[in-house]
Amino acid sequence: MSMRAISAKQAERPDGMRRSAGAAPRATAGHAEPQAAVRGPDAQGPDAPGTPRMTVARCLRAEALRLRRSPLIPLHLACSATAGLACGAYFAYAPWDPALGADAYAQFLGACMPLMTGIVCGLDIDAEREVGELANLTAVPSRRRAIAARWVALIAMGSAALALAMGVFAGILALAGRNVLPAEAYLGSAAGLAAGSAVLYALLLAAALRFGRNVAIGVGAAGLACALFSVGGLAHGLMTGELTAAAGGIFGAAPFAWPARLGSLAVEAAIAAGGAGNAGLAANAGSNAVAAAAWQTSLLCAVVTAIALIALLAWFNRYEDRRR
Questions:
Q1: Along the 324 residues of the chain, how does pLDDT read in single tens digits?
Q2: Is there a contact between 118 and 218 (Cβ–Cβ < 8 Å)?
Q3: pTM for this one?
Q4: CB 60 within 8 A of CB 152
Q5: Domain encompassing residue 98
C-alpha cells in the first residue's frame, strides 16, 4: 500500500484516534493522562479536595437523625411519664410529708438508673449489631468520635427523660396544692440524676459491646440493689421518716449509687435551706452535711466519669467484635 493511501485512511479516523506511527498516546481535550490524574471532589482519601471531615458535631447530628425513629425514645417517654404520674398521684394524696416524698422520689429514680441504663445500652448495641454488625461505630474514620457521640446521645436522651419525670411529679404536686419545694430543687435534682448517670453509660456501653445485652442488663440490676442499699432503703425511709442521701454508707462510694445520691442531695439542700420537711429529715440532713456530701460525691463522680470515658475511647479504638 502506498504512503498516499495510508494517509487517506488515517484522515478518515476520528480526531481522538489519530496517532502517528510510534508516537505515545496524547491526552484529548478534557481528559488527563493516566500518569497525571487529577483528584476531583469524588476522590477518596484523607487528602481529597472537598471530602467532608468526621467531626464530633457531624457525629452528633447523625446520632440525632438515627434516634428520630428509634424505639428507645418511646421507651424513655413511657417510663418517665409513668413514674411521674404514679408517684406524683401517690404523694399528692398520701398522708406523708410532700418534701419527704420528693426526696424519696429522687432516690427512686436514681436507684432505677443503673437498670435503665443497662437496658438502654444493651438494646441500642444489640440493634446496631443486628442491623450492620456495628459498622456505624467501627467502619468509620474515627471510632473515638463515633462512640463518644453515641455516649453523648444516650446521656441526652436519659437526661430528657429524667427532666420529664421530675417535671410531671412536681406538676401533680402543684395541682394538688402540696408542693413545698421551689422549682430549683427539681431542676437541680434532675441535673444531679443525669450527672451521676454519665459514668454508668460509659461502663454499660462497654459491657454491652464486649459481653452483650444480657450481661449489661444483669450488671444494671445489680447496680439497682447497690443503689437501694446506699441510701438505707426507700421502704425504711418512707416508714420512719429518716431518709437522707448525706449518709450513703459503704455503698455510697460505688458509681451505681451516684445518681440516687446526687439527685436526692439537691432536694435535701432545698429542704435544709427552706426548713421544709419533718424534724427527723432536717436533723439528719442539715445544710452543712448535705453540702459536704454533695461536694464530695460530685468531685468523685466527675473524676471517675472522665477516667471511664477516656478508657472507653482508648479501648474501643482497638475493639474487635467477638460476638459475630
A1: 444 444 444 444 444 444 444 444 444 343 343 333 333 333 344 444 455 688 888 999 999 998 888 899 999 999 999 999 999 999 998 888 888 889 889 989 999 999 999 999 999 999 999 988 899 899 899 999 999 999 999 999 999 999 999 999 999 999 999 998 999 999 999 999 999 999 999 999 999 999 999 999 999 999 998 888 776 555 445 544 556 666 656 667 789 989 988 998 889 888 887 655 444 444 444 577 778 888 888 999 999 999 999 999 999 999 988 766
A2: yes
A3: 0.78
A4: yes
A5: 56-315
- Interatomic CA distance for residues 46 and 231, integer angstroms: 52
Contacts of 218 (CB under 8 A, 6+ apart): 118
In a domain, 9, yes or no: no
The string of DSSP letters for 255-320 reads GGGHHHHHHHHHHHHHHHHHT-S-HHHHHHT-HHHHHHHHHHHHHHHHHHHHHHHHHHHHHHHT--
Is residue 44 one of the residues assigned to a domain?
no
Count structural domains, the chain. 1
CB atoms within 10 A of CB 123: 18
Burial class (CB in 10 A: 0-12, 13-18, 19+), 235: exposed
Residue appearing with cell numbers 442488663? 217
> Nine-digit cell at 34?
493516566
Report d(CA 201, CA 199) in Å as an integer.
5
218 three-class SS = helix
Does 294 fall in a domain? yes
Spatial CB neighbours of 16, under 8 Å, sequence gap ≥ 6: 28
Q: What is the DSSP letter of 69?
A: T
Residue 42 in domain: no
- Residue 86 CB neighbour total at 10 angstroms: 13
Q: What residue spans of the chain are helical by DSSP H? A: 3-12, 56-67, 72-93, 98-132, 135-138, 143-175, 183-211, 213-230, 234-240, 258-274, 279-284, 287-317
